[in-house]
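quick q for whoever's on today - can somebody do inverse folding on this one?? i tried earlier but teh output was garbage lol. tokens:
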């Protein structure tokens, strides 16, 4: 089965990847990349016997190359919002966590081959995927607009971009969104948006950094990483757009683990851990409840 193109996790925005992701990525399927112990508290959800490939441990397949969701820190330890969420789910199940770094184009076959118990890797929930795996939705993936922090009070969203310059990566739904907004400007008798397109997402960001455009459109996840790396420099404006749900995937024949993860996510949300993780990584706009 050919998964590499039609199952790309970034097919919604076709972005080349998050800033600095390539430098941090470790390709291949190196299992055991980040073992962590379950939190020192009683399990709130029971995992039925035989539901996990290895008893007492949940292994997640993840392409650990997409900050701020999954990436390696300087000590080569998996970190990021999805890493913390996966660890929190494991704690509710009372099991250890093992992160198996898996190339994204082979991640569903790896799950089906029982190289892991579940996928946590910004896997978009799409009809063709739901035919082969079960999902536990845990957040959205979306696009957003970024402006210089000093302009965040005057540019509050796309409606304020009429007559201004905005940058985006060629071929993405960000550019489509800006094009539609520009048409709305013209229909209202206002100047169109001057849309500047670039082959690399990082080049579009550089235009904003240099003050050559007024706004930059990208994925909320990329924007969150940029804000974390350069605090006080940029701000997010408007509501997230082009949203699509992301979920933990399990095998069709592993309904018991699917149900356990569903309950574990509910527990993580109830405890406030879920909200804390999204807030820490500037991803509150991707809250599944919104």
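ok took a stab at it. sequence:
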């Amino acid at each position: 089965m050919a998964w590499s193109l039609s199952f790309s996790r970034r097919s919604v925005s076709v972005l080349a990847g998050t800033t600095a992701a390539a430098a941090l990525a470790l390709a291949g399927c190196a299992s055991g990349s980040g073992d962590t112990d379950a939190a020192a508290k009683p399990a709130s959800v029971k995992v039925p016997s035989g539901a996990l490939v290895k008893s007492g441990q949940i292994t997640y397949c993840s392409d650990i190359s997409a900050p701020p969701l999954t990436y390696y820190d300087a000590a080569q330890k998996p970190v990021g919002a999805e890493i913390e969420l996966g660890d929190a789910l494991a704690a509710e199940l009372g099991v250890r966590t093992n992160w198996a770094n898996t190339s994204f184009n082979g991640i569903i076959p790896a799950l089906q081959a029982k190289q892991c118990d579940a996928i946590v890797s910004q896997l978009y929930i799409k009809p063709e995927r739901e035919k082969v795996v079960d999902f536990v939705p845990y957040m959205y993936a979306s696009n957003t607009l970024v402006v210089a922090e000093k302009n965040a009070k005057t540019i509050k969203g796309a409606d304020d971009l009429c007559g201004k310059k905005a940058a985006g990566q060629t071929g993405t739904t960000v550019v489509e969104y800006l094009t539609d907004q520009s048409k709305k400007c013209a229909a209202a008798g206002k100047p169109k948006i001057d849309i500047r397109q670039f082959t690399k997402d990082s080049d579009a960001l550089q235009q904003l950094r240099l003050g050559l455009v007024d706004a930059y459109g990208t994925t909320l996840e990329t924007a969150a990483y940029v804000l974390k790396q350069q605090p006080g420099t940029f701000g997010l404006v408007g509501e997230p757009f082009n949203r699509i749900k992301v979920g933990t995937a399990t095998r069709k024949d592993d309904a018991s683990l699917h149900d356990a993860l569903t309950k574990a996510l509910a527990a993580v949300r109830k405890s406030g851990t879920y909200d804390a993780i999204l807030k820490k990584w500037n991803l509150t706009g991707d809250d599944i409840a919104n």
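fwiw The mean pLDDT is 88. also Strands lie at 57-62, 71-72, 78-79, 96-101, 118-119, 133-148, 165-169, 194-198, 215-219, 234-251. so keep that in mind when u check it
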